[in-house]
Amino acid sequence: MSGEVLSQNEIDALLSAISTGEMDAEELKKEESERKVKVYDFKRALRFSKDHIRSLTRIHENFARLLTTYFSAQLRTYVQISVASTDQIPYEEFIRSIPKMTILNVFEVPPLDGRIIFEINPHIAYAMLDRVLGGQGNSINKVENLTEIETKIMTQLFERAVENLRDAWSTIADIDTVLTDFEVNPQFLQTVSPNETVVVISFNTVIGDTTGMINICIPHVVLEPMIPKLSVRYWMQPNTKPKNVEESEFINKRINKTKLEITAELGKTTISINDLLNMDIGDVIVLDKDTNEALNIKIGESYKFTAQPGVVGKKVAVQILDELKGGGNDE
C-alpha cells in the first residue's frame, strides 16, 4: 500500500471485494511484504524533527506572552495572543495559505542569514490601527488602499512588536531585528525558493471583539545554525561553560582585596538598666572571662577563631590560637 489515507467509500469497496472473493487478503499481504516502498514527497522535505518543533513552540509561547503584554500596553484594550500551531511546510504552501491581500512585514535577523516574515491578518491589523488612532477597535478591510500615514503607523507598531523576538530567542541566539520590507500582496514577496522548507508559527489573536491570526514564517536557512540548540539534550544539560582563566584570576584578586571587619571580644556581661543609669567614672564591670582565657575573634557577624591578647611593638595585638569549627553567629 502507498500509505495514503482511504476514504470511507474506498474502505467499504475494499471490504466488499474481499468478502465476494474478487480480492484475496492473503495476496494483499504477500504483495505488501514483497513491496516495501514508502512514498516520499520531495517538495515536503522534513528538515526539523518533532523535538525541534516542540522547542520552537515553547520559545514562541514565550514570544506570544511578550506580544500580549506589548499590544495590551500600546492599544489599551483586552489583548490575548497564544500559539495555535507550529508546522514545517514548503514556502509556496505558506504563501497559498494566507489571504491574497494582507499585512506582511519582512525582517532580517542579523547575524543570522535569511529573512523572516511577520504576517498579520487585515482584520487584526485594522483593529490595532483603529485603537492607535483613538477608535473602539473596529475592523474594516481596505488593505488595497492603505494611505501613507496608515502604512507608517502600522510599520512602527509591528517593528517594535517584533523587537520582542530578541528576548524570546535569547536562549538560542543573540539576534537583532531590522525591518527591510512592508508588503500587502504575498505574490510580490519572494524571500526563498517555493520548495524551501519553512517553519510557520500561527498565533490565535483576540483584540477586543476582533479575532484573527498572526503568522511568523521562518525559513530553514535562518534556523539552520540553531538546530543543535533546539534539541531536548541542549535544554536539559547543565550549564557548564568553561571558565575564562583571566576572568577567574580577576575575581580572585578582587576577593583577596576585600576588607573585612575583625573584632576581638574581651568578654561579655549583663547589667540592669538601673545599673547602667547609675554608672560613674571609676566603676568596674566584671566580664564573663578570666584573664587567662582565650578571646573569641569575630569576622563580620560570625565567630571564626580563638586568640590570646598581646603587644607587637607599641600596638595592642592578638595571636590566633585555633579555628572555631562551624563558627556561626553565636559563641
Automatic annotation (TrEMBL):
SUPFAM superfamilies: CheC-like, Surface presentation of antigens (SPOA). It is a peripheral membrane protein. It comes from Gottfriedia solisilvae. Its main location: other. The keyword Transit peptide does not apply. Keywords: Bacterial flagellum, Cell membrane, Cell projection, Chemotaxis, Cilium, Flagellar rotation, Flagellum, Membrane. GO terms for molecular function: cytoskeletal motor activity. It is found in: Bacterial flagellum basal body; Cell membrane. InterPro entries: CheC-like_sf, Flag_FliM, FliN-like_C, SpoA-like_sf. CDD domains: FliM. Residues 254-323 form the Flagellar motor switch protein FliN-like C-terminal domain. This is Flagellar motor switch protein FliM. It comes from the Bacteria. It holds the Pfam family FliMN_C. Belongs to the FliM family. The keyword Transmembrane does not apply. One of its GO terms (biological process) is positive chemotaxis.
